[in-house]
Specification:
It is a single chain. With 207 residues, the protein is α/β, with parallel strands linked by helices. It folds into 2 domains: 36 residues; 126 residues, 2,3-Dihydroxybiphenyl 1,2-Dioxygenase, domain 1, CATH 3.10.180. Helices cover 29% and strands 24% of the residues. It contains 5 helices and 7 strands. Strands 2-3-4-1-5-7-6 form a 7-stranded mixed β-sheet, covered by helices on one side. α1 packs antiparallel against α2. The longest helix is centred in the first third of the chain and has 23 residues. The chain is globular. The chain starts with a helix and ends with a helix. About 4% of the residues have low confidence.
Length: 207
């Protein structure tokens, strides 16, 4: 427990997590420690077999949802729905075709869906008999934020797994010290892996 807290504090001091994330992670660590003590003190659990360790360590540790990107028929309808029902905060609304809906440390991006070369959103197709209407909207990508981000190490891991090319560049358009990579998952979905780049990260050194 002490080692985990020390690591969380180091990450905060090095700029990998902000104050809110530090508090959340400390709270999760305390909850997990309390559950472990309760389990150990319960005689009924004394004979329970220890869980088997994973075969190998995962490449990254996901800490939270970064954002979901929706392509929709009319972004204003989506904007008003999530703002009114879910209390999300509307930011960066360009008044034409896109806005962001913030909640906690995550957000939804709502943008009008466009056909290639078209200036307007496509019309909804007519439903066939005894069938659901064809979808007119989609989730074009989902971004997950990972723990202890290092742009170069993430790129090397993606290269090792054949998920990136040597020329792959990080996406740094999400704000100061933000870095991410887009890859395809096994089902072809656009997966964005993101994190907060510390002061010594390569994306900051090149600025």
């Amino acid at each position: 427990m002490e080692n985990l807290i020390a690591k969380l504090l180091r990450d905060f001091e090095d700029g990998f997590v902000n104050r809110r994330q530090l508090i959340q992670n400390l709270a999760l660590a305390a909850t997990a420690a309390g559950a472990s003590r309760a389990y150990a003190q319960n005689p009924a659990n004394a004979a329970a077999p220890a869980p088997s360790a994973p075969a190998h360590s995962p490449a990254f540790k996901t800490v939270e949802l970064d954002h979901i990107s929706y392509q929709v028929k009319d972004y204003r309808v989506t904007r008003d729905f999530y703002a009114d029902l879910m209390g999300m905060d509307v930011v960066n609304d360009n008044g034409r075709n896109q806005c962001e809906l913030r909640f906690g440390n995550s957000m939804v991006i709502a943008r009008n869906r466009r056909m290639p070369g078209a200036d307007t959103a496509p019309a909804a197709p007519a439903p066939s008999a005894n069938a659901r209407p064809a979808p007119t909207s989609l989730v074009d990508h989902i971004a997950y934020r990972v723990y202890n981000w290092d742009t170069d190490q993430v790129r090397e891991e993606l290269l090792r797994r054949g998920l990136a090319k040597d020329s792959t560049r990080p996406d740094t358009g999400g704000g100061p010290n933000y870095s991410s990579f887009h890859v395809n998952d096994p089902d072809g979905f656009n997966l964005q892996i993101s994190g907060w780049a510390g002061p010594n990260d390569s994306v900051n050194k090149k600025k």
